[in-house]
Amino acid sequence: MGLIAGVDEAGRGPLAGSVVAAAVILDPANPIAGLRDSKKLTARQREKLFDVICDRALAWGIASATAKEIDAINILQATFLAMQRAVRKLKLMPEQILVDGNMCPKFPVAAQAIIQGDSKVECISAASILAKVTRDQQMVDLDRQYSNYGFAKHKGYPTTEHIAALQLYGPCVEHRVSYKPVRIAMHQGILIPDNIE
To answer: pLDDT (tens digit, 9 = 90+) per residue, 117-141?
Structure first.
């Protein structure tokens, strides 16, 4: 059997930030214990496994599509774009790609979508961990720039706290204006291009 890459994403549901995808080709001769769906791991477990995956995998790539790209082409197509970019970053070309979910984008090799693949297939689990850790860190970084929204805490998801901040301050440039709660907030306030001190 040839090389197989697992692909997964993080950040389809949040109201702000990029959607991040990762692709991973694991080394059968160098297995990694503890791989599972990133959502079933603690942040500390994910961060520890992130380093192990990057060290032991035969190849890995991480890429994203921005909030502006999401607004321009919709979240599904932006997710596919991020996945394609992640695969292009692999230093080895796999013979097959396995994608978490029920749909997958076009790749230069055969691809298959696997529902709940992040819980069933280790290379997809590894990709889910890389994507989740990377996106969470991006939101922590955004929190330093746009400190009013609580990005470090809720990671951009539509929590009560996040919706309240949107209603109070309006959206920032990292918000996805194609998402309904952000559009509502835009009509209530002004677009804020920079952080409010």
So the answer is: 999 999 999 999 999 999 999 999 9
